[in-house]
Every structure is written in C-alpha cells, then in structure tokens.
Specification:
Strand content: under 5%
Keywords: Cell membrane, Membrane, Transmembrane, Transmembrane helix
CATH class of the largest domain: Mainly Alpha
GO molecular function: transmembrane transporter activity
Shape: globular
Membrane topology: Multi-pass membrane protein
GO cellular component, one term: plasma membrane
Helix content: over 70%
Radius of gyration: 21 Å
Number of strands: 0
Distance between the termini: 16 Å
Number of helices: 17
Low-confidence stretches: 397-407
CATH architecture of the largest domain: Up-down Bundle
Pfam families: MFS_1
C-alpha cells in the first residue's frame, strides 16, 4: 500500500469502519466493568464480594494462550463477529438478577464478559498488521489508545449516574446493543487477511506458548516486555493505596474520580501524539521516556501537595499511555502475521495480570506499611525499569531514526 504519510493509511473507509466497530466494542467492554462490583455490593451488602468481581475479571488470562492460538488458525474477522454475538447473548440472563442468591450468575457472566477483551486483543493486532504498512501501525495504535481513554474517562461517571438513577438494566441493554453493533460492523466489512497457520505437529501447548516465547526472546521486544511488566506490576501497588493517597492529601475520597479523569485526559493526549513521537524518536526511545516519566510522575504522590499530585497524575497518564502504545507497536512490527494472535493474547496477560496480583498484595501490605513507602518503592521500580530500557536498541536499521518506524 503506497501512502504519502504514515497517517494516510488510516483515512481509508475500511479502517474508519473498523475503528467504529472497535469503539462500539470498547463501549460495551467498559460500560459494565465498574457496575458489576457496585451491583454485587448492593445485592449482598458485602464490599468484599463486590471487590471480588475485579479478581474475576483476571480469570480469562488463564485461557489467553488458547484464544491466541485460535486467532492464528481462523479468520480473525469472523472470530470477532461470533465473540461479540456471544458477548451480547451472555449478558441477557442479567435481566433476571434481582437478589443476593443470583450473585453467582453475575460472576459467571463477568468471566465471559471479561474474556471478550482478551479475544479482541488476540484478533485486533493481526488485523491491523494485515491492513496497514508497518510505518502506520504507531498512528493506528495511538488512535485506538485515544478511543480507549475516552471511554475510561466517560464510562465510570456515566455508568454510575445511570446506575443510581435507573439501576443496572439500561446499562446491560446498552452493552448488548453495542456488542451487536460491533458484530454487525465486522460481519459487513471485508478485509484481506493473511493465510491461517497450518496444524502444528508439536501439539497444542508448545504452539500456544509461542506467543510468550516470542515476547521474551525477540530483541528488543524481550527487554521491553520485561521492563513494562515490572513497571505496570508496580503501578498496581499505587492502585492499592489510591484512597490512602487521597486521604493524606486531605481530600475527600470522591475526588479520586476527577483525579483519575485528569490522568485519562493526559492519556488521551498521549494517544493522539504517540504516532508522531515514534516517527521522530523511534519506538524504543518513546517507550523508554514513557517508563522514566512514569517514575518521575509517581514521586509527588508520596507528598502532601495537592497541586503536585494533580500534575503528577497528568504525567503518569501521558507516560503510561506512551509506553504502552510504543510497546504494542513494536510487538506488531516484530511479529509475523500469523503469530500475532498468540503474541497479542500473551501481551494482554503481561500488561494486565501482574498489576491485578500486585494490587491485591498491596492492599494487604497497606495494613502494616505506610502508603508513602509503597509509592516510593513503586517509583524506584519504575526508575530501574526505565534505566534498563535505556540499554535497549532497535534491531531494524533506521528504527530510531527520524521517519524510521519500519522493521
């Protein structure tokens, strides 16, 4: 595909239609993510049972290798269509949930609901790789990250308002409609996909593990994987002490929402700028600066200045989004077309599961360790990860040169 600029490939009708489909998916994925916990808490009167829904969301990580392998063996477009139809169907039983004895059903639905995001991660990367030249992937990932931030900003507030006003059922209906809309988009659009992988004589587990093997053995992707794993796992520690930070700043707990919104706004800006930054500096350099910026941004959260904390939240949002977009783009460029599913699913586990586990550990540690110590430990870990990333070098000639986003 001949393009005059990396962003030009994103102006095709097909990419715009797919972007609309992924926006619908993102809405459906996010509109109920917080509401499940609130709903369970209201039904049972137990904050612990409500909080357990967040752990349930991590369960699909254990089937991620299977989902990635499947995405490399079939049409990814059709896989998304059937997944979104299934996502809509599994939400229907929620209309009958009305008492504490039905909570088990909410948990079951939450597992399937969370699985949809893992399927999207397994399929989206390969579809982008098939559609776009390598030099356009950074702009595409930046745009999709910006869409993700828009929903992260709006859905918690909108969902909570609707829930308080009318209860969960309109939100369930909206998620079902969005999933069906996304399924319709992917059923209608036509994409020339790469040839599906053949049967692997090694068997299921070696083939499924190829995604993790590729992530942790391909330079510079391996170094980027280890460092972002460490940094995002450490961020889970800050998530665990978020309310303690707010309390130390002398603010009401309700102000955590606006502060998180500020972080999302900065992440939105990073998504819009990431493609240009990678063209100018290269993917590895943007990734490294993102990790170092994260370390710097976390330090003020251990202090007492509200102004410094507000600025810090913006720095954290911009830095995390920049690092993730650069990592995802490097992963796509360095991965063959029909390994994209397994590598995409594996990286989704790397980016999400460690943070969930560390958040649980951090919540327990907060009982015996001052939250400021935990924040500074987090910042130190991110600094070490950033310094290690400074040693990484792009493999492809010109990757770190201006305009050299190819591999």
């Amino acid at each position: 595909m001949a393009v005059t600029s990396p962003a030009a490939a994103l102006r095709t009708t097909t990419f715009r239609v797919l972007t609309a489909g992924w926006a619908l998916t993102n809405f459906a994925d996010s509109v109920l993510s917080l509401i499940f916990a609130v709903w369970v808490t209201d039904l049972t009167g137990s904050a612990a049972l409500g909080g357990a829904t967040f752990a349930v969301f991590g369960a699909p990580a254990f089937v991620a290798p299977f989902l990635g392998r499947l995405a490399d063996r079939v049409s990814r477009r059709r896989m998304l269509v059937w997944t979104y139809v299934a996502g809509a169907a599994v939400l229907v039983p929620l209309f009958w949930v009305s008492q504490a004895s039905h909570v088990w059903l909410v948990y079951v639905v939450a597992v399937v609901y969370a699985t949809v995001a893992y399927v999207t991660a397994a399929c989206q990367s390969g579809l982008l790789k098939d559609m776009l030249p390598d030099e356009s992937l950074g702009h595409a990932n930046g745009r999709l990250a910006a869409i993700d931030q828009v929903f992260r900003l709006s859905m918690p507030l909108l969902g909570a308002a609707v829930y308080v006003w009318t209860g969960p059922m309109p939100l369930v209906a909206a998620a079902i409609a969005a999933f069906l809309g996304a399924a319709a988009v992917f059923a209608a659009v036509r994409i020339t996909e790469s040839v599906a992988a053949d049967e692997d004589p090694r068997g299921f587990w070696p083939e499924a593990a190829d995604g993790f093997r590729h992530l942790f053995s391909t330079p510079p992707l391996a170094g980027m994987t280890w460092t972002i794993l460490g940094a995002l796992a450490a961020v889970g520690l800050v998530n665990a002490v978020a309310f303690a930070i707010i309390d130390h700043l002398g603010l009401q707990a309700a102000l955590l929402g606006p502060l998180t919104t500020l972080q999302g706004v900065a992440g939105l800006a990073a998504g819009l700028l990431a493609g240009r930054l990678m063209i100018r500096w290269g993917r590895v350099r943007v990734f490294t600066v993102g990790l170092l910026g994260l370390a710097v941004g976390l330090v003020p959260l251990a202090g007492s200045s509200v102004v410094a904390a507000v600025v810090a939240m913006g720095v954290v949002g911009f830095s995390v989004t920049s690092a993730v977009v650069a990592f995802v783009t490097e992963r796509q460029v360095m991965t063959p077309a029909r390994l994209q599913g397994r590598v995409g699913a594996a990286s989704h586990v790397v980016l999400n599961l460690p943070g969930v586990l560390v958040t649980l550990a951090g919540a327990a540690a907060l009982a015996v360790v001052d939250h400021r110590v935990l924040v500074l430990v987090n910042a130190a870990v991110c600094l070490v990860c950033g310094l290690l990333a400074l040693r990484l070098r792009a493999v492809a000639p010109g990757d770190d040169a201006p305009g050299g986003a190819t591999a």
